[in-house]
Amino acid sequence: SNFDHHCIWFNNCVGNDNYSYFIVSIVGIWASFVVYVVQLCAGMREVVEAGVGDDQVGMVVGACIVGVVVCVFAGLLMGLIGFHCYLGCVGKTTYDFFMERKLKT
């Protein structure tokens, strides 16, 4: 009931019955990204303090690239969380929001 949107990532429609599960899921995924980046930074700090050998340069560069990618996705996910907080405050569904915008154009 009260259709919100179809989430392609969860391959499921979101509405009144499962909206809270959707929010908990995206907040949980965002939190896991944050924990991952914090642990990655702590690990990289230890490696740098111990001295990076020639055989570890590839690992450090790879870890930095993965960290940047995870940070980008965490930022995008935070935008999604903020958008759904906004929708909750104004009392609209995602479907209503986009249909309203479509009618204005």
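^ that was protein a. below is b, sequence first then the tokens
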Amino acid sequence: MSITSIKSTSDFVIDIEKLVVNKNINFFDAVILYCEINNIEVETAASLVKQSTVLKSKIQYEAEGLNLMRKTARLPI
């Protein structure tokens, strides 16, 4: 599967969110699993993640929780 066979970034995000719910895994693992299932490179998926601010934020939040990256300041909501 190549980048041309993915219809849009929103389709990619929907597929990732379905994997998160159905497999009960985090977003980072869902992207890796998606790449394995669809035989695409992680770099291709990374470009799609960069285009989606929602998915990028969710992955960043998880990475901060796992201490994989520094925590960013957040405003209380």
